[in-house]
């Protein structure tokens, strides 16, 4: 879904020669028909082959299933090649930072929309605010057409969507890491052009929990109102459980039944329009005065290129980051989260400029916080 | 759940000698400990044995699972014994009326709360109203304590509850039988002492569709608000489907998964309080003036006898009807719905008196319909 968008963006740049590797021949033929690039049908779970493949190129971009995320990062580092990654992984990728530093490899992970551009915004804010008091990240990838009852389609692997509904979320409150239940703290927010969305805690702060000094940080995913309650009901009913139950004399895993019943309806139709909403709020003092910095993104399906918004907003940050690495604007060895890049002078601004050139346009608003509202 | 209440009520009457037959020895021992009666452990699916058992008694009361309803009725008729039945059956029991008449057997079916007392009210109303314009029946059996998300427990076989959520409902509109989807036409109604309930079409008119002259008739089941929407969602998701789907290489019937996940939470705890709400509205002209006749019942769990309200409101109409048959107040051969009995002078009033003596107290209200509201 996203890899082909990344490949096309880089292939359209005469500075790059692009090879796309995947085990799916049909997917390779589809992208080869749309862009000037090489394709290679390969099992990327074969780590020796992966290292060899990486060694034959200057920069590697990763868009892997979550269970292959960490092993791919390690293989590319071992091949001593730069890496820009959008793969979700449950593990902490920064554990490989020492290996990367030792090999002189620059790797940037979590480099999509959120985590991704949201981290860069936080990194930039951390250079502007003394103290940095509060960070809020709200993100949504949604279908434009809302159909009862779930009003939802999955812009990435639907199994990872259900993970969002069961995995506890780490937030930061009063300077401490607090674990909140999945689907907790629902709140309604209005977005111009979209309407009211319902936000709930998800485990998306990731590296920010440790890299940012703000004592209060939340990350929330959003859905159209109503979806969250239904997911809470299905979870309560046991339908998201991975523990097998006896049904008609067989052992059946409820979550697999949920997947079989839900996912067909959660799949985007060909050409179906989606949208991405991202809001990042950073609060703190700038030059002694409390301010609220706010970035907003509303991005929509691109009918002219038939590219889904979630593919654009997730893929372009990675291809732009790859250019930062290619031209040396960010060349520090190690495994880095995007906030490290965002904290470097000019790079978050350059990211926003390049995204805007691709139609992914953030707005920025900064305003003083009335003193009565300051903590 | 209901059979033991029926047996206890009859056993407490010195005019009767009672035998309870069931295949469940534990259930038999439980009821034997509570009342002066005989028990017989028997497979009532063995129709020859059933006929023999029936022949040894004067009157038979039936409280059978739905799939055994019709065959039990037939066996009792063949044994030439009177029968009072509360079993739900998908089939039309009146097809056996000719057989009953030929054998001189009096059988009254659907003799619970609704269908049951509601039919008797309709039958009585049909003798009072010329024309009889409209009949409305609203019924609910609910737990007193409402727990998120379903706020529901099943007072009878939960598989039959799910049937209510999928089986289309026949209503009568403008003099024609109209089939409406299950869970359709939800409406909110307030009941003193209970609060707001949500009513939806169920297929409970049954014989009334054909026996009553009213051109507009509805029957609705009620739940606490919110339940209906969740059932619509689960149905839409496919969880009530009886068609097997492939899950992890196995064929799995979604409704069996739903049963395994939902029913444990839908089971009343020992001693848990329930309530029954019934409202019957009949509209038409009495002596040339439009009137609205309305019967209301709010019945609650009886802690002193540890008897669930649904068992009381369903079981007592049958035991009272059995007395009508025993003392000859209703002795017409054939298979009869309760409205036929209710139309006989004095019998619906006698039913209400006897129910009230058992603490199941209806209220009755009759008021003129302002002429502006008359069709």
Structural class computed from helices and strand pairing of chain A? alpha/beta
> Low-confidence segments of chain A, ≥5 residues, pLDDT <50?
none
How much is the average pLDDT of chain A?
96
Give the termini separation of chain A. 43 Å
- What is the number of helical segments of chain A per DSSP (H or I, 4+ residues)? 13
Strand portion of chain A: 25-35%
The largest sheet of chain A, given as strand count, sense and whether it forms a barrel, is: 7 strands, mixed
Counted beta strands of chain A: 17
| Spatial ordering of strands, largest sheet of chain A | 9-10-11-6-14-15-17
Oligomer: homodimer
Which sequence of SSEs, written as H and E, runs from N to C of chain A?
HEHEHEHEHEHEHEEEEHEHEEHEEHEHHE
Give a verbal description of the structure.
Chain A has helices at 3-11, 25-32, 47-55, 69-78, 97-103, 117-128, 158-166, 208-211, 227-237, 254-262, 309-326, 338-342, 347-357; strands at 19-22, 38-41, 59-62, 82-85, 106-108, 132-143, 169-173, 176-180, 187-191, 195-201, 216-223, 245-247, 250-252, 274-286, 289-300, 334-336, 362-368. Chain A has 375 residues and is an alpha/beta fold. The relative contact order of chain A is 0.16. In chain A, helix 1 crosses helix 11, helix 3 (47-55) packs across helix 4 and helix 11 (309-326) crosses helix 13 (347-357). Chain A has a seven-stranded mixed sheet. Chain A has a four-stranded parallel sheet with strand order 3-4-5-16, sandwiched between helices. A two-stranded parallel ribbon of chain A has the order 1-2. Chain A has 13 helices and 17 strands. Chain A binds chain B through residues 148-149, 230, 232-233, 236-239, 245-248, 250, 252-254, 256-257, 260-262, 265, and chain B through 148-149, 230, 232-233, 236-239, 245-248, 250, 252-254, 256-257, 260-262, 265.
